[in-house]
Amino acid sequence: MDFTTLSISQIRELLKTREASAVEIAHAHLASIEDKDKEVRAYLSLCPERALAQAKKVDAVIAAGGDLAPLAGVPVAVKDVILTRGTRTTCASQILENFVAPYDATAVQRLENAGAVIIGKTNCDEFAMGSSTENSSFFPTRNPRDLTRVPGGSSGGSAAAVAANFATVALGSDTGGSIRQPAAFCDIVGMMGTYGRVSRYGLVAFASSLDHIGPFGRSVKDVALVLQTIAGPDPLDSTAAALPVDDYVGALSGDIRGIRVGVPTEFLKGLNPDIGGNIQKGIDLFSTLGCQIVPISLPHTDYAIGCYYIICTAEASSNLARYDGVRYGFRSPQHDDLRDMYRKSRNLGFGAEVKRRIMLGTYVLSSGYYDAYYLKGQKVRTLITRDFVEAFDEVDVIVTPTSPIPPFKLGEKVNDPLQMYLADIYTVTASLAGIPGISVPCGKTPSEPHLPVGMQILANHFDEARLLRVADAFEKAGGFQIS
Questions:
Q1: CA gap 188, 144 in Å, rounded
Q2: Is 483 designated active site?
Q3: Is 409 a residue of the active site?
Q4: Mean pLDDT of 284-299
Q5: Cys staple from 479: which of 140, 157, 388, 474, with CB 3.0 to 4.6 Å?
Q6: For the chain, how many structural domains are there in total?
Q7: What is the CATH number of the domain that holds 102?
Q8: Which of 132, 178, 403, 431 is catalytic?
Q9: 178 is catalytic
């Protein structure tokens, strides 16, 4: 039996009946990574000692007749911007190449408390800044569905690890689409909860008012199980919402009759026809499931990219000021004085995209430009949020493409940052509004080479249960295989 293709429920059943052990399942994944990740390059580092120690604990509980934890023995990959105690957390940057985290992120701790087995840390765009995982300081990750193409970004390593069966589920981070877009490119499920639904404690900050931690999986149910585990209040994160967590798995009833599905007219302009055709078929499927399809308008969508790249770069400029070569991280070995050490350490330690965003952010926050750019960007953000609030008075969920284009070739957009930024057009609006979103597979493009298409489903603040129910019904009705 191939243990690397199993769902969380299947792993649980094997452990329960003692047909397999958690150690065997962990070994199978580590062996698969050793054998096949030379091509995909999803992982930056592995932690086999930690994984096997946790697997042995799970097996010991089973041997003693104890109750199985919700994620007992489930192999998990963690994006390398999320802290894991005693393991390198590099943010795919040379400035943190040798940084070893002194504590676990809350999400990681909750996973291990639920019996999950942390396999390793996955590659990403440096400091989560990018849409292709080509901005990693170490190497690009390849898409397991087509090794000539990117897996998306910035959580491309986590998406690739799940798609290649190197982990059952994975954690990523999403600031403007960094979970949802790679999920679409790699033909899997990826979810960003409401801002504050999952604690950000232990997530290396990119843009603090936009950052989320969220799960990847090969099914909606697996994603729901992980979100159920990591969501909830956290005294270590003041932005974590003090709200109870719904029963996400129990919400997967399959019945979505009467659900009002909003389709925004603004999201269909300039769309790749192959993508648009599949999304329309997905919408038609919702109609056959008893949903009411409602055309809606989100009038400030055209301003979303400009608004997002003002706010996120401003916050990045502030957050990345701490990497100066003094307390931790890379320090230039040759410098004349303190100012020269700062300059050389940051120049050598940061990659081109990170420098670009720091400069943009510093500019929009600078004296004389703050009101014209950053303050105005925040006002536009309020208008975009208001669009969604008004839309959810009319509909229960909103359906859009996840990406305007299918996975592109490695190197195709590296020298065109504007085109790379525009690839986030369908995901940044939800990030700015702080609402939850999920990307699910929606078939393959009809023309050669038949690349994955992702459908994004959005819901109102803290309505993850309904969002997951709609996504699960779509999966059960064959929506993932639309042709």
A1: 11
A2: no
A3: no
A4: 97
A5: 474
A6: 1
A7: 3.90.1300.10
A8: 178
A9: yes
